[in-house]
Each structure stands twice: as structure tokens, then as C-alpha cells.
Amino acid sequence: MTRPSYSCALPPTADVVDKAQLAERLGYRRVWLFDSPALHGDVWAALARIAIATDRIGLATGVAVPNLRHPMVTASAIATTCELAPDRLISAFGTGYTARHALGQKPVPWDDTARYVRQVRALLDGDIVEIDGRPCQMMHLPGFAPPRPINVPLWVAADGPKGLAAARDLDAPGIVRTSLPTEDVGTECALLRFGTVLRPGEDHTSPRVLEAAGPGYASIVHAVWQNAGAAVDALPGGTSWRTALEAERPERERHLAVHQGHLSRLTDRDRAVATAAGPALLRPGWTGDPAAIAARLDEAGAAGVTEAVYVPAGPDIPGELEAFAEAASH
């Protein structure tokens, strides 16, 4: 068994470069950036800024969403980032659960996602690709982009059977998951995990823990509401949470409010439901003392995870990054 390397996932914020530089100093393997344009800044602009300001840390989209950009736009963004940080980029793609719901749309179907990845791969290879009924090709002259082929690994976010089937069909060199694999995935595997490292004497009642672990818990509440509406009432504080949401926005606009702060910061509505969770606040994700976090890493390695991607949250991201890095080397 090999303990996974540790990386971090961050939203593209104005201060993301400072956080990425800290992650580099702390030994994080990669910094992954969210792609949710309704919630955060632009993922590619932020990656370019980090590429210029760092020396070694890997860069990744966590994860890029088809239909937000033409395949040529994504291929060109990949090419530009590669010029700034050669051999440091991977681009992972998914169906865009949160990013698409925040736009009032359903996630991109898997067939369309796989087609998009194939198109981007072919463009990076220098091939002619039919897109929207017309041939497309990267036509950059020398000096305008790296020469083709541009060998950037294209990963797939694959939790369920459809995603895993798409990853296998695409021969993806890596996959991104939010749960431990239950079978041999046969490739590199990054596991996204939220939570916080508990300090002595802390529990679910500690204000710092609430702010750091709460956004991860709230993301589950968001998903329950998104998938099953009133089923959220079965969660502690769920009825009050739903009532507050319904009072805040008319039905056709509720997607504009529910995902705010996704995996990053608590809204007042989310803080209330996270507080109502009681000890259950600590159960999702990875929350525990340093020894418990180290044990979770070992468990992940035994399940075939090669990279643990920590999603820090709350007002003190540098502190969260430092604590997780220390626990990961426990």
C-alpha cells in the first residue's frame, strides 16, 4: 500500500495565487481549481496567474465543464497554460453538477461529455475535428501556441457507472472521484475530500469547526434539495432551511441562491442547517485529529487512490492548508 500524495482544490478567487504559493511551499502535489462561472472567477485566468507565480506545483481543472466553452476555446486555454507551466497541467472534465445547476440547467449528459473530451484531445493532437458540422483545427503558427501534439493529460470526473464507463472508453489516464473506489479503476485516481483537522478540545460545537466543516455538509443539503426538493426536510434543520430558501427567492430563481458558497463559505441559511446537524456535521468528508486524517489517507491508498485532493473551507484557508499538510505527513 502506498499513501496517496496530497493536493488541494480551491475556487478561483482574487487571492488564489497566494494560496497556491503556500500550497507549493507546504508540499502539495497539485492545486485544482473549480469551474463554476456563476459562483467564482474564471478557472483558466486563475490557472494562468498561478502558473506565472509558482515554480513546481501541478495545476489542474477540478473540473472543467463541457458546454461552458467551445472545444477550441478550451484547447487554446490548455495550450496557453502549458506555455506558462510546461508539464505541470492536467485538465479534468465532468458533467458540471454544481456549475450547471447554478445556471438553472441539468448536468451535461455523459455522451456529450465524452464527445467534448474527444474533440479537445483531437484538437490538442493537431487533428482536424468536426464540431457543429464544420471542420476545426488548431491553426496557430509558431510562436502563437506550442507545437502540436500538446500532450496534456485529460482526466474524467467519474463516480458512478456511467462516468467510469466513459473514462474507460476514453482511455483516460486519470479519474476524479468524491467517494472511495470499490473496484480497481486501473488508472490514477484523485479523491476530493472536504473537512477540517480538529485541534485539541474541538468538536462540532466549536465555531471554527462549524465554519470549516460546514460548507462541505451544506453541499450535501444542496444536493438533496436539488435532487429531491422537500426530501431535505428529513435532515436536521432541513425544513427551516427550505422555508428560508423559498422565502428568499421565487421558485424559478431558487437555483440562484442555493449553491452560493459551495464548498467554500457558509451563508446564513447554510450556517443554521449546519449548526442543526449536531455531531453529524463531522461525519461527511474527512474531519478528525491529525492521526485520524493520516488513517483516512492510508485507507484511501489501500482502495487505489493515488492523490487525495483536500478542499479547505472557511475564513482561514492558509490555516486549513497548513493543518492538513501536517496531518498528511503524520
From TrEMBL:
Keyword Oxidoreductase: yes
Key word Oxidoreductase present: yes
One annotated GO molecular function: oxidoreductase activity
Pfam families linked to this entry: Bac_luciferase (PF00296)
Domain Luciferase-like: 12-306
Enzyme class: oxidoreductase
Alphabetical keyword list: Oxidoreductase
EC assignment: 1.-.-.-
This protein's name: LLM class flavin-dependent oxidoreductase
Originating organism: Actinomadura fibrosa
